[in-house]
Amino acid sequence: MPIHLCKLLPPRPTFPADMTPAEAGLMQKHAVYWQGLADRGIALVVGPVLDPAGVWGVAVVDVNDADAAAALTNEDPVISADAGFRYEIHPIPQAILRTKHQPNPL
């Protein structure tokens, strides 16, 4: 299954409202890391999810398997810094993908 959803869980429920300066720096490195993967076509979409139950992050990646997705998430600066973040990885067995970028008429 090549498409996987990587759910980034923050270190506490109140994040990012009470983000420390050190965490802000990590989040900048995190964004640069994932932008690089998006530029290479590995990450299909990445960003924060404004869930009313608590903000979390999403990355949908096109990789061979869950081990490859885990390798990507383990290299994320917020994980390698051991700052309390963690990922859940879920396969998407049947993804419908846009064939090319077109303007959204809605």
From TrEMBL:
Pfam families: YCII
SUPFAM superfamilies listed in its UniProt record: Dimeric alpha+beta barrel
Domain (YCII-related) ranges: 21-91
Recorded family membership: Belongs to the YciI family.
Name the record gives this protein: YCII-related domain-containing protein
Source lineage: Bacteria, Pseudomonadati, Pseudomonadota, Alphaproteobacteria, Hyphomicrobiales
